Amino acid sequence: MTTILVTGGTGTLGRLVAARLRADGHEVRVLSRHAPPYAVDLRAGGPALDAALAGVETVVHCASNPGGGDEKAAARLIEASRRAGVRHLAYISIVGVDLVPYRYYRSKLAVERRIEESGLAWTILRATQFHDFVLGVLQALAKAPVMLLPAGLSDQPVEVTEVADRLAALATAPPAGRVPDLGGPEIRTLESLARSYLTATDRRRALVNIPLWGRTYRAFHEGGHLMEDEHTLGKGTFEDYLTRRAVAAGRA
C-alpha cells in the first residue's frame, strides 16, 4: 500500500482523511506543528520536514491558517516534496478563491498556482464551507441578544466527512489536476441557517440583516463562493449536522 503524508492531519478535515486512508490499509503519517513524531512547522521547513517526507509517495495537503503563512508553507512543502520524489500532491482548496477578493481566499488561490507550477503531479479539490465553520459563525453571532447578519448573503455548507471521503479517494487515484468542486446540497440564506441553529439549540434571538459594503462583501453577495450546478453536491444538510450534534450531546 501507499505511504501517504497528511499535512494538518490533526485538524477538522485532516484527521478524517488520515483515518479513511488508514482504514483502506495505507501507511499514513500525520504532520502537524504539535503532533509527534512528525511535529513540523511547514513555514520553517528544514530537516524535520525532509524526514517526514522520506519514502512518501503521496502528500495530502490539508494544513491551512486563515491568519496567514499558507504560501510560505506551500513553498517549503513543494520544495521538500520534489527532493523526496513525491509522486502525487493532493490539495484541498475553497470554492470561490478565484472570484472573492478575500485575503485568505487570495492566499488559497496563490497556493493552487504554486502547486500547478510545481512540476509535481497534482490534484486540487475545491469545497464549500464546512458545517462546522457555519456553526462557529452562528455561535459567535448568537452571543448578543440580537443576531446581526450580513444582508443578502447565502451559503452552501457541506458535510466535512463527505469532503474527507472524496479527498481520500482522490489521493489514492492517479493525479487528476483540477477536479469538480464539492459543495453542500442546499444554497441557504444566512438568515435561514441562523433560524435552524436557534431552533436546534432552543434559543431565541432577534435577527437583523445589516447591509455591508466593499468588494469582498459584494462578491459574497453575488454568490462567488457558491457552486455551479454541474459540479458535485454532497448529501448531508445543515439540519442533519445539527441533529447529529444534538444526539452526540445527549440533547435528542
UniProtKB/TrEMBL annotation:
Domain NAD(P)-binding: 8-132
One Gene Ontology MF term: protein-containing complex binding
Coiled-coil regions listed: none
Superkingdom per UniProt: Bacteria
Pfam families in alphabetical order: NAD_binding_10 (PF13460)
PANTHER family in alphabetical order: NADH DEHYDROGENASE [UBIQUINONE] 1 ALPHA SUBCOMPLEX SUBUNIT 9, MITOCHONDRIAL, NADH-UBIQUINONE OXIDOREDUCTASE 39 KDA SUBUNIT-RELATED
Name of the protein described by the UniProt record: NAD-dependent epimerase/dehydratase family protein
